[in-house]
Amino acid sequence: MPVQPIRLFGDPVLTTAADEVTTFDKELRVLVRDLTETMLDAPGAGLAAPQIGVSLRVFTYDIDGDVGHLVNPVIGTRSDEQQDGDEGCLSFPGLAFPTQRHLRVVASGFNMYGDPVTVEGSELMARCIQHEVDHLDGILFIDRLDPVQVKASPHATRGLAV
Ligand SMILES: [Zn+2]
């Protein structure tokens, strides 16, 4: 089954820094397919490999129908300008918190065939990239929040779930 169970908060894979992909083989292409199908099934706007239990630096995104993936992503440029907005995470079902992020970012990495690619985004795409790269570093969005805010203002996911 290509759709995989999504790992939930408390699973140690979510707080472990993921490894660089070194081999661009069929196994990687299967991982990208599984990630994409699991994300679309959820549905979510993005999904990182550790969220399906694979500790590799790969994530997928689906922002307004723009579906793609990035392997070994590195955020090279972050705008000084910030954005506010609700952010959710598929590993925290039903929860969303206002989370500050950079408004625009540029990330470089590779596609599943090993070709260099650059993904540039603002607003939701930028939020998704920052959230997913955090996942690959073992950082969860609640780590970005003020603890008082987490206690005071959980509410149902309406915004991005990634
Ligand atoms: Zn997430």
Brief synopsis:
It contains 3 helices and 10 strands. The protein is α+β, with helices and mostly antiparallel strands and 162 residues long.
Looking at this protein, list some descriptive labels.
single chain; 162 residues; 5-stranded antiparallel sheet; 3-stranded mixed sheet; 3 helices; 10 strands; binds zinc ion
What's the layout of helices and strands?
Elements: H1 26-41, E1 46-48, E2 58-63, E3 66-78, E4 82-83, E5 86-89, E6 92-98, E7 101-102, E8 104-110, E9 116-122, H2 123-136, H3 147-152, E10 160-161
Parallel strand pairs: 5-10
Antiparallel strand pairs: 1-2, 2-3, 3-8, 4-7, 5-6, 8-9
Zinc ion (ZN) binds at residues 89-91, 131, 135, 162.
What would you say this structure looks like, in words?
It contains three helices and ten strands, in the order αβββββββββααβ. The strands form three sheets. Strands 1-2-3-8-9 form a five-stranded antiparallel β-sheet. Strands 6-5-10 form a three-stranded mixed β-sheet, covered by helices on one side. It is α+β, with helices and mostly antiparallel strands. The longest helix has 16 residues, at 26-41. Helix content is 22%, strand content 33%. It is globular and about 45 Å long. Zinc ion is lined by residues 89-91, 131, 135, 162.
